[in-house]
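Tokens in:
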């Protein structure tokens, strides 16, 4: 964890024990700094609704700051991992939480937007490792929201992860980022080959061809090698448990259906005018 006095800052000074993580980012080409892309680039647009979740923690070791990644899913709610907020554990307690948006560059901290997160989560589940929090101030009005797609990846399907690895500015993982093969899912898990670090927990796993979230990353492999993979929770499984996500998906489907009907009506009117 970071020192407690850094809570509320965008650029967190890393403890000596985790300095090697920053070096890993610099050496690994699969971690792409999103600040290097134009704000109108499709990758930056997909990344807009993803932010860093900062948690002021109290434990037996004292106070500290932990970070995860979270996605805006509506005008009120964000989605992250349940294990980021140890409400099920007596050894630690979250005292306060912030959502930091637009943290792309350590040198431009003044551009970062901070939103208060309401505690405790409105929904959470330990097995599915998801938590939904209410956020004050409607960050979706500025940054939009991620598109949710409750389907499982195909084996070997190209994926994309947007995250704040090690609490650092926003990165994307694309190179080599794919669903595992020959098996891409297991029980409630997505098995993936996307590079992540501590701080990546809660980050959205997107299907590259759809630009939509199909899961949330929650853990890395305990070993490295050709047969290793990381783990995410299937959005399809979460949607089957979450009333909030079910309602969001239903509203999105109704909006899409209404748009299709309106488009069909416009096309019918245009044909009628041409034939008149």
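Residues out:
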């Amino acid at each position: 964890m970071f020192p407690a006095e850094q809570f509320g800052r965008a650029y967190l000074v890393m403890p000596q024990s985790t300095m090697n993580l920053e070096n890993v980012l610099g050496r690994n080409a699969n971690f792409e700094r999103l600040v290097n892309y134009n704000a109108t680039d499709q990758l930056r647009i997909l990344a807009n609704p993803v932010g860093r979740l900062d948690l002021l923690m109290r434990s037996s070791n004292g106070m500290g700051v932990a970070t995860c990644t979270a996605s805006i899913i509506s005008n009120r709610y964000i989605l992250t991992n349940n294990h980021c907020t140890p409400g099920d554990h007596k050894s630690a307690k979250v005292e306060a939480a912030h959502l930091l948006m637009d943290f792309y560059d350590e040198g431009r901290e003044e551009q970062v937007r901070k939103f208060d997160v309401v505690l405790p989560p409105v929904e959470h589940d330990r097995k599915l490792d998801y938590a939904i929090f209410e956020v004050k101030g409607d960050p979706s009005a500025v940054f939009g929201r991620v598109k949710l797609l409750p389907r499982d990846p195909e084996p070997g399907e190209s994926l994309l992860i947007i995250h704040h690895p090690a609490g650092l500015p926003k990165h994307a993982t694309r190179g080599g980022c794919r669903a595992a093969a020959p098996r891409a899912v297991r029980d409630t898990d997505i098995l993936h080959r996307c590079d992540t670090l501590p701080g990546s927990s809660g980050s959205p796993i997107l299907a590259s061809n759809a630009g939509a979230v199909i899961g949330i990353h929650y853990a890395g492999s305990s070993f490295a090698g050709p047969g290793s993979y990381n783990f995410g929770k299937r959005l399809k499984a979460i949607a089957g448990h979450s009333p909030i996500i079910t309602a969001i998906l239903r509203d999105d489907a109704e909006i899409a259906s209404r748009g299709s009907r309106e488009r069909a009506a416009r096309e019918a009117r245009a044909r009628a005018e041409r034939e008149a």
